[in-house]
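Q: How would the structure tokens look for this protein?
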Amino acid sequence: MPKMKSHTGTGKRVRVTGRGKLRTEQAGKRHLLEGKPSTRTRRLTGTVEVAKADVKRIKKLLGR
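A: Here is the predicted structure in token form.
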């Protein structure tokens, strides 16, 4: 049987914490920033925990 390969694109976007939780950057802070209020862009900084509905799929992509 061949080895399972992790999805390298997902690996670059998602970090696994020490307790196994998944953290990723928030969407909506890449472009068209002039039209967005600075309060919104500040709120979108930093990482957030991946939505519960997506955890199973992303863990499979990461080979975990």
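The chain has three helices and three strands.

The longest helix spans residues 52-62.

Upvote if useful.
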